[in-house]
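Hey team,

Filing this mostly as a record. A colleague (T.K.) asked me to run one chain through the structure pipeline before their review meeting, and I want the input and output archived in the tracker in case anyone asks later how it was produced. No errors, nothing strange. Just documentation.

Input sequence:
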Amino acid sequence: MTRILSLVFLLLTVNALLLKSDNQPPTASRVTTLFDFGWRFYRGAAQGAEAPNYRDASWRAIDLPHDWSSEDVPGTNSPFSAKAISQVSGGFTTGGTGWYRKTFVVPESQRGQRIQLQFDGVYMNAEVWLNGQRLGAHPYGYTSFWYDVTDKVQFGANNVLAVQVRNEGQNSRWYSGSGIYRHVWLRVLAPVHIEPWGTYLTTPTVTAATAQVKAETQVRNEATQPATLTVVTSLRSPAGQQVARLETKQTLTAGSNARVQQTLSVPSPALWSVDTPVLYTARTQVFRGPQLLDQVETSFGIRTVSFDPQQGLRLNGQALKLKGGCIHHDNGPLGAKAYDRAEERKIELLKASGYNAIRCSHNPPSPALLDACDRLGMLVIDEAFDMWREAKNPEDYHRYFAAWWQRDVASMVLRDRNHPSIILWSLGNEIPERGKPEGVATAKELASYVRKLDATRPITAAVNGLGPDKDPYFAVLDVAGYNYATAGDHHQADIYGQDHARLPKRIMYGSESYPLEAFGSWMAVRDKPYVVGDFVWTAVDYIGEASIGWLGYMQKPEFYPWNLAFCGDIDICGWKRPQSYYRDALWKENQVSLFVQAPTLSFPTNPKKEEWSKWEWHDVLADWTWPGQEGKPLTVEVYSSCEQVELVLNNQSLGIKPTNRSTHYTATWSVPYQAGELKAIGHTGGQSVGSATLRTATPPTRLALKADRTELRADGQDLSYITVELVDEQGTRHPKAQFPLTFEVTGPGVIVGVGNANPTSTESYQSPQRTTWQGRALVVVKATRQPGTITLRAQGQALPAASIALESR
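Output structure:
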């Protein structure tokens, strides 16, 4: 009996193993490791630091992503300096030279494999060595690049990776940051493998019944023998179910590569859109016989995009207007550091404010930002350059364009072309030679190369100085981006209409527009089918181009200590500014917001500001706390998409006014100030459908802490954004309270950024302290790689300390 039971147990065990083998994919040799941890950094020149035996023990231990320009200038408590070479353009931040070193081991067991290092972004002029051997240089600060380092790796022993970064001279018109500010990756591959960015998925035919998916795979054989391979592509639905599978045989000689083309069909496809961002997954596998050599998974969306002057932009056959905004790449208090969560939060905030499109101005973004756009449903214009051969700054990319443009365009397109969020490739922004024959010739070169790499998306560019002399340049483009085309109900000139009359086949959009002209810009989009959208400058505020949203152009060194542009709908801490609420009224139904014109200017103005410089918004505040103004008239503005708005002060109605297109969705009252409650009530169809309230604040009595997320991943990268407010006994934030606060973190977390959105504050972004502005401050906490409870404690003035707990798992 014992023998029978043993035999039965053995058979059951073997059967279980066989079932497991059938249901689980064979293991490939590809191993991808996030290479962000355990670096050392030195700010300044370090002669000989590329040598493996260089002594770096005194260098600072850091993790990536990293940006030294957002750190305090050595010997100070601020990242800003009036003497900085970057001046107003760079927000008075400091670049220079920096060095990074990392020591690591590649196990002996991986000998015979291919080893690759990939950098997602380094600003700028990166030069890379491994074990003292130079891998190469990469001048452009915004494109990804990689090296095969197999012949330079020491297996089973220490390896030293050294990177010199030089952000020198005047090379940017905005804040660029400095250093290895995006992720670094180490890949271990079989000699026969899929090349980096070697999968390409398109959906040329989409119907309700089926979608045709074309899969192209670049396979390389770096072995010494020929290989007969099977390339298998399988597609999985968002629920993880396999919906299509195809095998293709391919023979590769040693040292060669091949492009394997496959066409698969997906029945009853779920379409990707801004409202339903459905993502499929393609699993690409390379087999030699039964052996799995390599495997890559790629997310993609099934959708159609078309542009024409009669029907405008159509996504999946449905008309769609682009509610867009331009963004720079920095993340406010974090500088240029591209943490995945920081990029995701940026898109979440924009979606919540009605945006459905962003323009990546004026450079390719981080992969993490595009991943977030795919997941959340945000359309993207992916832009290559801010200049070509002619300079905007003495040390900018024009010095490298001739030698590098093809490699950088290839990096952008090959890396990004599987993202369903991307609907347009932009060749550049406000290119100086755009109106010259040589500029048109360059545009043709660029456009031809982009189409060679990806012919599924139209090509655009952002063009300023609009006029018929730009027609040859526009003729190269599929969709025309207009920077600051004043158009709409309240303008004398209608450039959109004039150009449409001349060139009725041209498809247009506002690639940049002024906040102050939001109404006219959006009315042009609404009224004209050939104008497919509008992108305000800017959707999110940023460091650099300091004060264009207040002091404007022309900019001067005397503008210090201004360091923020102060023109964004959303400020650098992620808080909505008044113009964002006005845009709500333009884009959404039943919106009501309430603001008060400041009785005295919030900041001194620039008496020499150029008339065309209009990036500011009205000097209004969400504030009904005005001591000393009792009985004096204050101007109250209500932005609303309701039919009418009623204003009520301390339960007394001050009247009802219309808010519609004829009033520019704005109603204004002159109200003698008295403390209490000011309320705007929106009415549509005779019903109250929305309201906004301002209350007079009494002196603050406590600190209120609120986190955007209280559960984090213990991965050394995840972030929580914590707003600290000074509130009174009723919980009303005091909009004028400017108190210094200090912060302390206990548990497995660290503070990686502090801010308050004050455009003239020169306080540190990294010290655990900040003065509140308009009654609040922001603390960004990063989880370490240890799980546990993280506690942030805030204290200041004579107020009791307050804390908030986060869980890191």
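Quick notes for T.K.: The radius of gyration is 28 Å. The chain has a mean pLDDT of 95.
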